[in-house]
């Protein structure tokens, strides 16, 4: 498993530094093939979950009043742990700055900065700023992203379907604007909550996505009739992106199964007969069991 | 990229007029291959979004009272811009009338007419007419349709699946009518809102599309039981059109990938071995990367 | 188009009677290939829609009071029309009884019987019986089923996926029973509407199908947590039947494209190399354009 | 049909005991190929449904008061029947203990134990314990699992797609945590119910799964705007697992259709040309009709 190519979204050009200890640390911290590396990942994952739980529970008044000191202790324990982790990551890569500005580097910084900043704010500071800062720590949940080695296939499928999904979103956007305005015309003066177009458009989104809160609902017969058409339209139109994406995943799955025996390049598509990189004839390989 | 065939839904037979300036304008206004053409599209798109935002915000009383003059200025600026655009489009095509009655020509007219009409209506006119006129401007959002060059594949897939989707819609229609009537029989006298069959049918649509406002909900045990069956039915039946459309998109995607090397005709279907136009043997080509 | 086999669900063994007029009537009434046959279908479809609209509007008190006599006239006009249609169908087929007990024969009877029965009921009869009788007429909507010539492919796909869909429905049924009971245990005494297990199960169905009326909603923290898990489960599990059905439609679509050149039998499956009926080698044909 | 391999999830290594009567009982109780075996299954299924109905109805106060003795009789009749069934199963298998600790063995125990335990609890015991015990009987519904011989294909497809579904669930989890916190920041002080982060996260789940109770709904313009984005995101993202699962079912369906004529091993994948177990050339077989 050593030489398999890194998933695309992790290819930030990170390499361990030249020293032996850097290489050893790198294996533990950035990889998950060794027992130590796996243990490191598990501890970190547990810390993330604990931290998120603490941030969430702190917002509940009754829990905050009863368990405040414990939550504070957890908070600082996790902040110190994440700080140590961040420093260790910076120490063992060849180019620390490059890691620092990468996506996961920025997530690491956002995970620890708010706690330290709150220390330096005088008590008289606006509560709103401190509160927002504290809540920023919820982005620690993004640290989980490191464990998504399967995300690559999905991102590729999404990128391929993006132009068609854009068409779909534009159609949805136009429909929502026009239907929202229409409902404002029909229901605007019935006092049923369609008070202005932005609110009507909000209702159209709530309805077309089949969420349906019911805080705003048509009351006139014509409004109900129009609403019924909008619902059927919203219910039916979800099949369009589903079909597009299904087709893409399937053709992507076949394509991924075939690799050039000569150069290791993936087949350019599911039906490719020759390698697009070196021109060698592709043998047919199959996906799951033969790996 | 000059000679690629236009997407089907834009094939309105438009050609630039004979003069050189007409050709130059046409390239900027109707095409997006040159830097000037792209800039024109971006400016227009921004104007559309700004205009829609103005129409929507104008309907909010507090914003209208505070920012009325600004909204009026934006409104007239955009109306003049769209008028100039429409005149320019008419000027540079060979057959202006043909453009004027095309789909996008009519959208252009609807985008500017309401503002001018409102000018000529005396102040004493019914507010409802003026209000409707002003709101008609929301159809400007359809001007975005020009940018949907990917829409063609989707329209083809929809056209192919239409007969089967019709079957699905008929089944849904019959189910809704019968189930709505049934619920009127069961819940009609429980005072829970199933006051007449049209309302019950409206409720059946709200339920089967899984929108579920909750403004009308069954209260009797038998009504709840029947409602539960309707929900499960509505939840399960969405798989039918999704499956149909997925299959169509996938076979469409394969079909689009293969073209005749002799005459350029698309393969009649994904499994076609010979060109349906000239009879030449089709080579297999693949979709995305080899283009 | 004369000799194409009838869709499966219409194969009730109906044949026109021996007389020439029976054959001529049969063509008009049961087929849609001649102009007269098409006109007959269109008139009938319009009558069905008008009749359903009348039944629905009659249930609205204000409309019934204002337009009662008109609705009654429409009602009797349509009843007489449908009676004439039914008699004509019986007259022109070779075995009238066989038609009378077929699905569409029974629909025809249910469409006209209630009106006649209501005539013979004395005025003092229970209003509930008359009301139910009148509403039975809504089943006239099923007369539309005759026009669903595309339904066959869908029914075949549904029949093939039925064993797997049954697994899915059993899993859903077990989940709903267990989750509903669980929520009764958690929320039963919080006064939030989970008063007994049938109600909790009803709530579980409303939630898992993502309808979400909101008439019953958890209020305790543990209840909200359990509800969130149920929602995520219901949201995720719909992918199972969708995937199954998509796969079936796709393989069905391919299979339908190949027919035996020797005997006209459809290929037994998409990959069949020999006709399952006569053993002749199957040529590959393609679906849409070559028909 | 005697020698077909058992579905995977039933492969608990059960064998009938050495005596002839054990073999005969085993055929009736564990298999469904003989008329007696089928009859046994039907009786058991009816008993399960009756039992679940009794548990559910017992929770409704009015029914419990009116029909209490009947429900108690049904309860004990079914408990004795299930006890006899469990003893018979233990008696006829070669290794009773192994059955006792298998999944269905445990379900059998849970189905009868609560009734017996309730007998031995003194009347003064906490009602909550007895109530929970009685409700545990609802797990009898799992006894239905025995009849899901088709479940195997679905479980295989789920196992194959699990890594990708995990990615999807992680993305959903992160989105819900971040969006819930965001909404708490925006709406937290508007009094619209977003009182703390756990509640906001609960709302985010209710919204993203399109359930939409409406017990908590944004009231500020910014909150409505953010909610609209969350809805569109939740509506769009369901296409991802649907596409993944559709692709898997389809490739699974093809793979399952081909078996090695030499050794009976299933083809390793849909495109396999040689048996992955014995190397014999695979003939192409087709799925449904030729079995």
UniProtKB/TrEMBL annotation, chains A, B, C, D:
Cited InterPro entries: Ion_trans_dom, VG_K_chnl, Volt_channel_dom_sf
Keyword Membrane set for record: yes
A Pfam family reported for this protein in Swiss-Prot or TrEMBL: Ion_trans
Gene Ontology terms, MF aspect: voltage-gated potassium channel activity
Keywords, ordered alphabetically: Ion channel, Ion transport, Membrane, Potassium, Potassium channel, Potassium transport, Transmembrane, Transmembrane helix, Transport, Voltage-gated channel
Subcellular location per the Swiss-Prot or TrEMBL entry: Membrane
Domain Ion transport positions: 38-245
UniProt membrane topology term: Multi-pass membrane protein
Keyword Transferase: no
Gene Ontology CC: voltage-gated potassium channel complex
Family matches, as SUPFAM superfamilies: Voltage-gated potassium channels
One example of a Gene Ontology biological process annotation: action potential
Segments crossing the lipid bilayer: 39-57, 69-91, 103-130, 165-186, 225-245
Gene3D superfamilies: 1.10.287.70, Voltage-gated potassium channels. Chain C
Xref: PANTHER family: POTASSIUM VOLTAGE-GATED CHANNEL PROTEIN SHAB, VOLTAGE-GATED POTASSIUM CHANNEL
Protein name: Cyclic nucleotide-gated potassium channel
